[in-house]
Structures are given as structure tokens and as C-alpha cells.
Write a structure and sequence with these properties.
With 129 residues, the chain is an all-alpha fold. The chain has 4 helices and no strands.
Length: 129
């Protein structure tokens, strides 16, 4: 079965999931205390934005290796978010159920990102042959 060629970063499954994660972060941070506005809330939102932005930028780069590097940055931002989710749970800003849902989504984004990195490397190897 032939896969439809990707024409835009918005076609990436990883980007679509990361977008969902970004929306989840904004939803979770809406109800955090005002004293966290410039601390945890800002950090979480920046990390969430970084995931989708790095995927978009990597997709637009010339080389496979640059794309992979931006995917790694995105993956790092997902890991950062997972730590922030735990902080929010520990401070009782989110419930255990909210934490679990956010954590599962973040892990899914990481899994798909890892697959995209592998596929990009494979395309590079095939192009080098």
C-alpha cells in the first residue's frame, strides 16, 4: 500500500498529535493560580508551542539530518512537559486523572516522534544509496 506523500508539516501525524498536546496544555493551564502565570504556566505553554514549532521548522529544512535534529528538540520539549505535568500534580493544580491523560498523550507524541525520526533516517539512507 502506497502512502500519500507529505506536502506540508500539518500532514504529519506527529504534528497533529503535538497540536492536540498543545491544546491540552492550554486547557490545563487555564485554571492554574495567578502566581504561576509567569512561572509554570509560561514554561508549559512555551514547551508545548516548541513541540509543534520544531516539527514545522524541521519539515521545512533542506536536509534529512536537520529535520531529525528539530524532531529531537521537539522530543525534548515533550519530556520537559512531562516533568511540568508532574509538578502541576504535586502542587495539586491538576488532578491525578488530568495528569494521567496528559502523560499518556505526551508518551504517544514521543512514540510517534520516534517513528518519524526512524522513517526520516531511513529515507536519508535510501537517498544516499
Amino acid at each position: 500500500m502506497q502512502q500519500k506523500p507529505l506536502k506540508d508539516f500539518m500532514d504529519l501525524v506527529a504534528w497533529k498529535l503535538a497540536r492536540e498536546l498543545r491544546r491540552k496544555v492550554y486547557e490545563l493551564t487555564q485554571t492554574m493560580p495567578p502566581e504561576e502565570k509567569y512561572v509554570l504556566v509560561a514554561q508549559m505553554r512555551r514547551a508545548a508551542i516548541s513541540v509543534t514549532a520544531n516539527l514545522a521548522e524541521g519539515f521545512g529544512r533542506f536536509s534529512y539530518q536537520e529535520n531529525v535534529q528539530f524532531c529531537r528538540h521537539a522530543r525534548g520539549s515533550v519530556s520537559e512537559l512531562r516533568d511540568h505535568f508532574t509538578t502541576a500534580l504535586d502542587e495539586r493544580y491538576i488532578t491525578r486523572e488530568q495528569w494521567k491523560a496528559a502523560e499518556e498523550l505526551a508518551q504517544r507524541v514521543t512514540q510517534v516522534l520516534n517513528g518519524y525520526i526512524r522513517a526520516t533516517r531511513a529515507r536519508k539512507d535510501a537517498a544516499d544509496e
